[in-house]
Design goal:
454 residues; 48% helix; globular; 20 helices; eight-stranded mixed β-sheet; D-Maltodextrin-Binding Protein, domain 2
Length: 454
């Protein structure tokens, strides 16, 4: 990638760190320096039954949350490349259920048998692991491999916690609407630019007997993108960052309005039924098959469409950014960075360091991002490696005034859990949003021990 466009992307990505990572997880929030409260008895979650390694005798134990069909294949491809370069290493590739992973990794890091290397999401979850003393600093690796020159400054910043490097980024994603192009053409539908146009489009599809939106929220986290964008398009990125940092109330008018806008769409019947009964892949397939017109999800869907469903870019599917709602609100996008890191108590630190070094290489970065439909964090991977749609997505992130981590990467893990649970409940019972927000607000007060701003 040429330096000019890359540097533009870095500038636009800066708020990903400043607004989400900085406020929510890196110490600029006064409440963040206090340990979060433990869950109340009513909210306590049973400790998950952690899976064992597929091969306890392996020389390298790798754990990750890429457990869907697309993720497992992409991970296998990357590990195979690493295996070819290190034929004597015996590697255990251990995928874990996405939600179990969130609970499991903090426990595993404190156990006597932690993973050697594992995937994680940059932001508040890494910060929590750093604060708990579970991660091995990687400053020496970054210096030896000159990774400051490999990764953009803002990506390097999202790898830095308490002044030290702890992660190697492997890909990042941008959340947008991905839609069925043939369905749009048949309906004579145009890409909406405003909230009014999006609602009119949803009504148009409803009249044609097709739900506008597919949302696969069985694992809860896909629902957060609707909350994120509705808040960003109304209250704005600064307000959202303050909410993520525990400085705003979940019962404030700004948050209530988000739920009201969301409820309008649900009550109107614009969503494919029973969103909590299926996952993001199923929602993507529902959209691809024309049973719904579009789905709000990350760019990993492009990998699923191309590599699993064998769909053609710009023929079978396209994308558009979440439309404007309130004039004057700075345009912001939702993003996340996938990373790998090493446990402080890793049993095979040399092998883990070899893997992390390899993951920063152009070969690994290209294999991963092409297979996953991710955007490349490495400046050594040319945009020409990707199809035209991904190249347009890269251009869009270049021009986006700001990007922020999605909800469960931007706030503390305990608050994230309460939020995801709240969004899931809302999908089932939209009319109960006031009660749901009150429950989330109670949790905010427990976690952050802070009064909201007036």
């Amino acid at each position: 990638m040429k330096n000019g466009p890359q540097q533009k992307r870095l500038f636009k990505l800066t708020l990903l760190v400043l607004l989400s990572l900085g406020l929510a997880s890196c110490g600029s929030n006064p409440a963040a320096n206090s340990p979060p409260a433990e869950p109340s008895a009513a909210q306590a979650t049973p400790a998950p039954k952690l899976p064992k390694s597929k091969d306890p005798t392996a020389d390298l134990q790798v754990f990750h949350y890429f457990n869907d069909s697309l993720g497992q294949q992409s991970m296998e491809d990357v590990i195979q490349l690493f295996q070819q370069a290190n034929p004597k290493l015996k590697i255990a590739n251990n995928p874990m259920d996405h939600e179990t992973f969130k609970f499991g990794i903090p426990v595993m890091l404190q156990s006597d048998e932690p993973p050697d290397a594992f995937s994680y999401w940059a932001g508040a979850r890494v910060q929590a692991a750093v604060d708990a003393g579970g991660l091995q600093p990687l400053d020496e690796l970054w210096e030896q491999e000159k990774l400051e020159k490999v990764f953009p400054k803002v990506i390097a910043a999202s790898s830095t916690y308490n002044g030290k490097k702890y992660v190697v980024p492997i890909g990042y994603h941008y959340v947008a609407f991905f839609y069925n192009k043939k369905l749009f053409t048949t309906a004579g539908a145009k890409v909406p630019q405003t909230w009014a146009e999006l609602k009119a489009l949803a009504e148009k599809f409803k009249q044609a007997g097709v739900p506008a939106f597919a949302l696969g929220s069985r694992e809860r986290w896909p629902a957060q993108f609707w909350f994120d964008y509705l808040l960003l398009r109304t209250a704005g990125p600064t307000y959202r960052a303050e909410l993520m940092a525990g400085q705003r109330s979940y019962t404030a008018p700004e948050v209530k309005r988000v739920m009201q806008l969301w409820q309008e769409l649900l009550d109107a019947g614009y969503f494919y039924p029973d969103a909590n009964a299926y996952n993001w892949e199923e929602a993507a397939k529902i959209t691809a098959q024309g049973q719904a017109a579009m789905t709000l999800i990350g760019t990993w869907i492009t990998g699923y469409y191309k590599n699993t469903l064998n769909l053609t870019t710009d023929k079978d599917y396209g994308y558009f950014t979440f439309p404007l709602i309130d004039k004057g609100v700075p345009l912001a996008g939702v993003s996340g960075v996938d990373c790998f890191m090493m446990a402080k108590k890793a049993q095979h630190p040399t092998a883990a360091r070899k893997l992390l070094t390899f993951l920063a290489s152009p070969a690994a970065q290209k294999s991963w991002t092409v297979g996953q439909g991710a955007l490349p964090p490495s400046k050594q991977v040319s945009p020409k490696s990707y199809d035209p749609l991904i190249q347009r997505l890269l251009q869009e992130t270049n021009s986006m005034p700001s990007l922020a981590f999605n909800y469960d990467l931007a706030t503390t893990p305990l608050m994230a859990e309460a939020g995801l649970e709240g969004f899931s409940a809302f999908i089932s019972r939209p009319s109960d949003y006031l009660q749901i927000l009150q429950t989330m607000e109670k949790r905010r007060l427990e976690v952050f021990k802070a009064k909201p701003k007036p």
